[in-house]
Amino acid sequence: MKRLLPIAFLLCWSCCLGLAQQPAAKPAFVAPMSGVLAVFPDTPAGHQLQAWLAAFNRGDAGSYRQFIEKNFPSRLQQIDQDIGSGGFDLRDMTGGFDLRKVEESSHTRLVALVQERGSDQFERLTLEVEAPQPNHITQLQTMPVPRPAEFALPHLGEHELIAALGQKLDAESVADRFSGTVLLAKDGKAVFEQAYGLADRDKKLLNALNTRFRIGSMSKMFTAVATLQLVQAGKLGLDDPLGKYLTDYPNKDVASKVTIRHLLTHTGGTGDIFTPESAQHRLDLRTLQDYVNLFGKRGLEFEPGSRSEYSNYGFILLGSMIERVSGETYYDYVRDHVYKPAGMTASGSEPEEQAVANRSVGYMKQDGTWRDNSETLPYRGTSAGGGYSTVADLLAFANALQQHKLLNAQYTEMLTTAKVDTPNGPRALGLGESTINGIRCFGHAGGFPGMNGDLRVCPATGYTIAVLANLDPPAAQRISDFIRNRLPKE
């Protein structure tokens, strides 16, 4: 499952803006920042950005609507819909934005870096206005970007980091922006582990360290390991077409062109599983074969290997091949060949209709209120996402990987070391990899309404970060990023 981001009318998340160079304009207005001073250009675009930030950061939906009505009338209908459906929760979640840097500027166009006030997250903001007065806004969008090196945060010592993390989590929990569990380990052993918030708001049950959380796309890690185990055993070939194993696959173009390597790196062009058809059959899709029956006749979205696009359906196909080659259900294979050797005793993927001890209820924000996410859940998690785990089990998985209990050294490196560049960062054969603030980490995040999680393993430092939340993204991702941005370098 794709990691889900907060969306308001202005947030058109895209992979590339294709920005052209614009002549610089003289600065005039200065905005105080935390540690950095940014300057609003003295242009119509600069004035509108300053005014928009003031209106948005105020956090009052009524006055924000008035600003849109006056300055961005083409989007008034959309903002009314967003505010009516709780879309202005974006302001509460981010805390607003601060201007950190102007990257490009002309009279009618401005590209800038802004930072969420409530987190370390940076966005690239693009704003365009009409040339004639009153310079109505014609475009306003942001795109998440990695924290730029020039704004790198100082590395903290372990004790300093733990103290800062405790303060951050206390504040986020009190503000009802985090509910879940957090674990930081050094050399395989926890140095910080704590639970926050409620596992069940109706029953007033607190989250605990043994609380199980739904993990979304984090289960792709287990699918990738299972796939490479079969490659390592000579039962699958990375560059074999999927039709070699799914011999009855309906679309012959897909069957003959898409390889296992393509599926692991999201370069197969196989598309997604979140469609109107799947929503209509949400509870009827009970097995991996059910998904293949629904989507198997669909053609390619692009030529395999020509580009990268996150594909949940690609991991459904990997799970189907695991079943076909191993002779076991996907769930039994992962239980016996991933969970058990890793010592993961609290992870699984039973159907949602079955009660699971210590599993938290997921809560999604609607109309400004946290609501149970049960009406959005599939019948059962799949090889593309779903199931549940604990932070202790995620640490056990990370330790087992590094100790080569799941794959030998060669295939562990293939799993964790980037082979393909994607719009969302480098990707290995199943996991993501990135270097932030000089520290390389690998892992995978997961998100869906009412659930968010992240696992990051940073081998050179010996640190592992595991965060799980029973709230909408990016509740867990923010905490994981907070830790990672400040990790001790040695």
Question: Which keywords apply here?
Answer:
490 residues; 6-stranded antiparallel sheet; 2 domains; single chain; 20 strands; Beta-lactamase; 4-stranded antiparallel sheet; 15 helices; alpha+beta; globular; Nuclear Transport Factor 2, Chain: A; disordered N terminus
What does the model show?
It is built from 15 helices and 20 strands. By secondary structure, the chain is α+β, with helices and mostly antiparallel strands. A hairpin with a 6-residue loop joins β1 and β2.
**Known CATH architecture of the largest domain:** 3-Layer(aba) Sandwich
What summary fits the major beta sheet?
6 strands, antiparallel
| Strand segment count | 20
Query: Treating each run of at least 4 consecutive H or I residues as one helix, how many helices?
Result: 15
Strand residue content:
15-25%
Helical/strand content category: alpha+beta
Percent helix: 25-40%
Strand order of the largest sheet: 8-7-20-19-18-17
CATH H-level name of the largest domain... which superfamily? DD-peptidase/beta-lactamase superfamily
Q: Fill in the CATH topology of the largest domain.
A: Beta-lactamase
Indicate the mean pLDDT: 90
- The separation of the N and C termini measures 34 Å
Count of folded domains: 2
CATH first level of the largest domain = Alpha Beta
Q: Rg from C-alpha positions?
A: 23 Å
